[in-house]
Amino acid sequence: MSVRATADIMGMPISLHIVNAGAGQADADAVFAYLRHVDGVFSTYKSESETERINRGELSEHDCSEEMRLIIALCEQTRTETGGYFDARYRGRFDPSGVVKGYAIQRSAELLHERGFRDFFVEAGGDIQTSGRNDRGEKWRVGIRSPFNPSELINVVRLSGEGIATSGTYERGEHIYDPVLGCPANALAGVSVIAANVCDADRFATAAFAMGERGIHFLEAMPGLEGYVITRDQRAYCTTGLQRYMSQ
After folding, report:
1. Most buried one in 27, 95, 102, 222, CB count within 10 A?
2. Alpha helix locations (H) across the chain?
3. What is the C-alpha separation between 76 and 86, in angstroms, rounded?
4. Helix (H) and strand (E) counts for the chain?
5. pLDDT tens track for 151-185
6. Handedness of CA 183, 186, 188, 194 (dihedral sign)
7. What kind and span of H or E run contains 17?
8. Which of 159, 175, 150, 154 is nearest to 238 (CA)?
9. Are 197 and 225 in contact (CB under 8 A)?
């Protein structure tokens, strides 16, 4: 018996579909409980989160939880890997949102693996971690939405074990900054990235968006990443390896 479940957590719809026999609502509830925990620790909207306590100077980065220290290290690693185009610190504030969603989805998938499931997906706000096959025994079909018309799919990719994440302005407006120039990143309309896991897809999609049209060259050069970029004037570019996910 497969399980489908949805919850509103971290200010976004989160859904999962477990295909394997033996799955039950308790498995979905365990994932949602974990994601609520993540929201409590990392939220930039909850005054008692560790993130906000760090920003108020009430909690040092050395005294925070092990999970927070892991995220801080991942943010710094991503800053280095992207030449500064990903930076969790902006105008005196620490905001790890650019890695937290992908990290949380990936960890949710790991929780399901630990429970013995192999065929499922977890989605949060359009970012997805896939595993195995769907209920027809096929790879999971994931649509890439148009940043100009979210009801329109401009491409469909087929994934089995990979993660995909999209950065754009159609849902949250201008919320990604170019930390190198110190201004909103507005050259692109959307960037979708496929990686071995959704955490990598999420953090590098954010960085590629901040880079503007240089983002597609960054994705092309990074091992293990494939991407699809749409500019504000509706030009589209993709990495050379993306086609294999579209033709399977």
Report:
1. 102
2. 25-42, 50-55, 66-81, 97-114, 198-211, 215-221, 243-246
3. 9
4. 7, 14
5. 899 999 999 999 999 997 655 445 576 666 666 77
6. positive
7. strand 12-18
8. 154
9. no
Please provide the DSSP assignment of 125-136 as one string.
TTEEEEES--TT
Q: CA dihedral defined by 127, 7, 10, 122, rounded to 10 degrees?
A: -30
Return the amino acid letter for 141.
R
Token look-up 């990686």 returns 195
User: Could you give the CA distance from residue 133 to residue 92 in angstroms, rounded to a whole number?
Assistant: 44
Residue 110's φ and ψ, nearest 5 degrees, are: -65, -35
Q: What is the pTM of this model?
A: 0.93
Question: Alpha-carbon distance 135 to 203, whole Å?
Answer: 30
Residue with tokens 């993130």: 51
Token pair for 91: 């105008």
Q: Average pLDDT in the 84-96 region?
A: 92
Residue 20, both tokens: 């394997």
Q: Is the dihedral of CA 151, 155, 156, 160 positive or negative?
A: negative
